[in-house]
Design brief:
The chain has helices spanning 36-44, 47-50, 76-97; strands spanning 10-11, 14-15, 18-19, 23-24, 57-61, 64-68. By secondary structure, it is of the alpha+beta class. It has one domain (10-97). It is globular, with a radius of gyration of 15 Å.
Length: 98
């Protein structure tokens, strides 16, 4: 895994005009690496267990993973909270591994 030259990589969620804290992405796999696809599969393998436990759906294609759920407009805040908890649980699992 590469841990340098990534100081400019960050992630932030914007929802209903509000922004989450900025999260710095400290490492990644070099593009074109023969390990890339295998490491990616290992990295996201737990999603199939964690995500459904929150009654959230996911779709993965190549290096793009989407978490989603269906709700009524009046339940959007509750749905956003469910997604946030799901992402937090996924992140906790990745921290244990990485």
């Amino acid at each position: 895994m590469r841990t340098n030259n990534n100081t400019d990589r960050t992630f932030q969620v914007v929802y209903a005009g509000r922004k989450s804290a900025v999260v710095i992405i400290p490492c990644s796999v070099l593009q074109g690496s023969v390990l890339g696809p295998r490491l990616f599969i290992l990295y996201i393998a737990d999603l199939a267990d964690v995500v459904p436990a929150h009654d959230v759906k996911h779709h993965a294609y190549a290096d793009d993973t989407q978490l989603y759920l269906r709700c009524h407009a009046q339940d959007a805040t509750t749905a956003a909270h469910r997604l946030e908890v799901c992402i937090t649980d996924c992140n906790a699992g990745w921290k244990r591994v990485g």
